[in-house]
Structures are given as C-alpha cells and as structure tokens.
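# step 3/5: fold
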Amino acid sequence: MPLTTLERAILELEREWPLETERSSKREAVHARIGISTARYYAILASLVDSPDALSHDPLTVRRLRRRRDERRRSAFIAEQPREHRPR
C-alpha cells in the first residue's frame, strides 16, 4: 500500500530534522509542519519504521530510524539485566 501524504510528511520531517535542531523543538516542528500531536506522530512513525513501503520511499531515513530503535532496545535490555553479585 502506498504511503499517505501524512506518512510521507513524517518521513520528510525525520529526514530533515537533524538540520533543523537549532530553529525549534521537534514538538514545535511536528505541530507547525504536520499539524498533529506528538503522540500521534510517534505512533505513526513507529509503524513506518517496519513498513516496506516506507523503506522503499526513503531507505536512508528508515534504516537510520531502525538503528536508533534497535540501539534503544539493546540499552533497555542491558539495563534490565541483573548485576552479578560479587563478594567484597
């Protein structure tokens, strides 16, 4: 299924966001450029990360988002691991 205009706009913002960091907060950019709440933005973005259509549309951005997601998951997994008990 082809991407919607909203989905393409979200990918575009993600692609351009690192260049815009000095101008405004991401929340402001989402509201100004796309006109949706940040909660909805991130929900749609999460689905786009695993979308084959999104990958075809913008492979560099989607792969970068996948790497970031995987890094966050790895960090969370490592943080959840119990520490070994070491006698003093």
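# step 4/5: annotate
The mean pLDDT is 87.
# step 5/5: archive (pending)
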